[in-house]
Amino acid sequence: MLKTKNGKTLAALAALAILAAAAALISVLTDRRTADPGREVRVYLDGTLYATEHLGAPHELTVRGQNGEVNVIALDEEGVWMKSSTCHNQLCVHQGKVTYENYASRYYGTDIICLPNRVTVELVLRDGEQDPDAPDV
């Protein structure tokens, strides 16, 4: 093996550098995947999971249906709302913002529903929380 002036091998230094890089990468990926599940929003199209988004910095998600329907969902650190929709009645837009503070008093609880475009937005509850209108199972 090659040795440096101070007696440490180059191989050992290279191995340490690789381990440090791998640990940093794992840390970043783990932080992203283990975000608080209670800060999550699930979006369904035609009853199938379309996307999972996290609350945080303001951003939007555009959902496009097979027949040209478009729903724009807005999210921020507090909650989620239907910003716009191509549906004819706009009831989903008028349902307003769902947050952890107001879901229990909303008619649809944790959901925003666009029936004409077959889009459902669900604010995922934190561990231990339960929608008061959920059926007892």
Q: Superfamily at the CATH H level of the largest domain?
A: N-utilization substance G protein NusG, insert domain
What's the average pLDDT?
82
Strand element count: 8
CATH class of the largest domain: Mainly Beta
Task: Give the SSE string.
Answer: HEEEEEHEEE
Question: Could you characterize the architecture of this molecule?
Answer:
By secondary structure, the chain is α+β, with helices and mostly antiparallel strands. It folds into two domains: 1-34, no CATH class; 37-123, N-utilization substance G protein NusG, insert domain (mini-chromosome maintenance (MCM) complex, domain 2, Sandwich). The chain is built from two helices and eight strands; from the N terminus they run αβββββαβββ. The protein has helices at residues 10-33, 91-94, and strands at residues 40-45, 48-54, 59-64, 70-75, 79-85, 98-99, 111-114, 119-123. The strands form two sheets. It has a four-stranded antiparallel beta sheet. The protein has a four-stranded antiparallel beta sheet with strand order 3-4-5-6. The longest helix has 24 residues, at 10-33. It is elongated. Residues 30-35 have low confidence and may be disordered.
